[in-house]
Design goal:
Blueprint: H1 8-22, H2 31-39, E1 47-53, E2 60-64, E3 70-76, H3 82-99, E4 105-108, H4 110-113, H5 119-132, H6 135-142, H7 149-159, H8 163-173, E5 178-184, E6 187-193, H9 214-221, E7 229-231, E8 241-247, E9 255-261
Parallel strand pairs: 1-3
Antiparallel strand pairs: 2-3, 2-4, 5-6, 5-9, 7-8, 8-9
Helix pairs in contact: 1-5, 3-5, 7-8
Length: 262
């Protein structure tokens, strides 16, 4: 018999409805309280133990005890970024809720958490982002906001999520032509854009930041201003845009660019 998996969006929506209709309905969501109130209840078929301690080889892991319905989630307390630990918690919860019939063990490092080509890891990230940043709240509170780094930081603060996770979630829901680009040393690492955004000349891994963009000028000149600036049609052959920059302070050299097309 084929093993089944649960749709991560539907499962995140189900838990969100329980939290909003029958739980505290406070945000940032308390994932521990959600787990205790729903998943560790006597009506839930499988058992889950959450163990937080120091590990050297992974940020989060989910392991089944052989031959049982008992699972242990291991969360690494050595990860210095609290928002990253929080997202990892939700990511592993996504594996538990959606994928536990597929494998007996999941182990996630920084690389796997950012692997957009692995279907299972992508689904766990989708679950985490939908659970931590519900669509109804994002739309109500931020849909009309100007797309710039200050808005991005406000979303991250509202839901206690990283800037990258916040950008991915916002752009996926936005009806306006917006995009988000992550680069380093003048080269694009990855990017995402809303459905209404036009074709972008600089979008894929390995593309150079386009000449004439504020992103490239900010990188070349060491300009760390987050001010929103208008640019000529450099991201698209015909569409003017506004850009806003943010340089990551973690030491990894990431540059984040929020783009809104006119």
């Amino acid at each position: 018999m084929a093993k089944n998996k649960t749709d991560p969006k539907k499962e995140a929506i189900r838990l969100t409805k329980l939290w909003q209709q029958h739980g505290p309905n406070t945000y940032p969501i308390d994932v521990d309280e959600l787990v205790n109130g729903v998943i560790l209840s006597k009506d839930f078929p499988d058992q889950l133990l959450i163990d937080r301690q120091s590990f050297d080889s992974f940020e989060g892991s989910l392991v089944r005890t052989n031959g049982t319905c008992k699972w242990t989630m291991l969360l690494n307390t050595q990860v210095p970024n609290g928002r990253r630990r929080r997202f990892t918690f939700a990511h592993e919860l996504g594996h538990f809720m959606c994928h536990r019939e597929l494998r007996d063990k999941f182990e996630d490092s920084e690389e796997s958490l950012n692997d957009f080509h692995d279907e299972i890891e992508t689904e766990a990230n989708i679950f985490a982002s939908w659970l931590l940043m519900p669509a109804n709240l994002l739309r109500d509170e931020f849909q009309g906001a100007v797309w710039e780094t200050e808005t991005l930081r406000a979303i991250g603060n509202r839901f206690e999520c990283s800037l990258q996770a916040s950008a991915l979630r916002y752009v996926s829901l936005c009806t306006r032509p917006v995009a988000f680009v992550v680069s380093r040393d003048g080269m694009i690492i990855w990017a995402t854009k809303s459905k209404s955004a036009p074709f972008m000349t600089g979008y894929c891994f390995g593309d150079e930041l386009p000449n004439g963009s504020h992103a490239l000028a900010a990188f070349q000149n060491g300009d760390d201003s987050t001010e929103r600036k208008a640019v000529e049609p450099v991201w698209n052959d015909t569409r003017h845009a506004f850009e806003s920059q943010y340089f990551d302070s973690s030491g990894q050299g990431y540059q984040y660019t929020c783009i809104e097309f006119q």
